[in-house]
Every structure is written in structure tokens, then in C-alpha cells.
């Protein structure tokens, strides 16, 4: 992370969603009001964009990782002049992969859950 040549700041603008759904061709479900969004799709869209970018970086044989900014994103990013209406979802650090890099951490050491615990067909049943 300290040697990353690029840091991508992933930002969302919830008002762009509420503004769009306040337009005449989208009116009706009340989505011009942020409190009516049961699922904040700006975060869903950001997550898909993050995953796509990480896959592209991997395909290009670079190194990357995604990190959240948990405590106070606004103060952590204050020096970058990011407008107040934008929210930080996280950061993607991009750099050159070291030839000896190998996957580490809990995703490597923890076993996968059995398929019947995570895949459900026709009905939701859980074994055990």
C-alpha cells in the first residue's frame, strides 16, 4: 500500500439518484426523497464499479487492494478538495505486484462454507 503508484478514491453522490428519480419520467415511487431508498443503490453501483476495476487491474497483472475509510472519511480526505455532497465508499490502491506475492489472510486460511449452506434451489432451506 505504501508503494502504490495510484490511489482511486471511490465516491458516491446520493443526490444524483434522488435528483434523477425526481424527474417527470421517473416520478411515482417517491425516490426523490433519500429516506425512501430502502437499498441505497449508489452504494450497490459503487460496489460493482469497484469489483470491475479490481478485475481489470488483475487482468493487467498489476497489484491492487480495496480499503474502507471507517473512522472519519471527510477529515481523511479533506486535503483533496472533494465536495461536501460526495461520500467516500473507500480507496483502491494500485501498484506493481511483487513477483513473490501470494494470497494471505483469512480468505486463504478459512475453509469455504459447504455449498448447501450458501446455494438454495426452489426453496430456502438450511441444513443443520
Mind explaining what this structure looks like?
The longest helix has 19 residues. The model has no long low-confidence stretch (mean pLDDT 89). The protein starts with 5 loop residues before the first strand and ends in a 10-residue tail after the last helix. It is built from five helices and three strands, in the order βααβαβαα. The relative contact order is 0.19. The protein is of the alpha+beta class and 128 residues long. Helices cover 30% and strands 16% of the residues.
Strand content of the residues, in percent? Answer: 15-25%
Gross geometry: flat
Structural class: alpha+beta
Helix content: 25-40%
Compressed to H and E, one letter per element, the order equals EHHEHEHH
Annotate the secondary structure layout.
Elements: E1 6-12, H1 14-20, H2 41-59, E2 63-67, H3 73-76, E3 87-95, H4 106-109, H5 115-118
Antiparallel strand pairs: 1-3, 2-3
Amino acid at each position: 500500500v505504501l508503494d502504490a503508484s495510484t490511489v482511486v478514491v471511490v465516491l458516491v453522490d446520493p443526490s444524483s439518484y434522488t435528483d434523477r428519480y425526481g424527474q417527470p419520467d421517473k416520478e411515482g415511487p417517491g425516490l426523490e426523497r433519500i429516506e425512501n431508498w430502502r437499498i441505497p443503490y449508489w452504494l450497490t453501483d459503487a460496489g460493482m464499479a469497484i469489483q470491475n476495476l479490481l478485475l481489470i487491474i488483475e487482468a493487467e497483472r498489476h497489484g491492487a487492494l480495496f480499503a474502507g475509510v471507517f473512522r472519519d472519511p471527510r477529515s481523511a480526505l479533506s486535503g483533496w478538495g472533494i465536495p461536501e455532497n460526495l461520500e467516500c465508499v473507500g480507496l483502491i490502491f494500485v501498484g506493481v505486484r511483487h513477483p513473490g506475492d501470494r494470497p494471505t489472510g483469512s480468505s486463504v486460511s478459512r475453509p469455504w462454507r459447504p455449498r448447501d449452506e450458501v446455494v438454495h434451489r426452489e426453496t430456502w432451506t438450511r441444513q443443520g
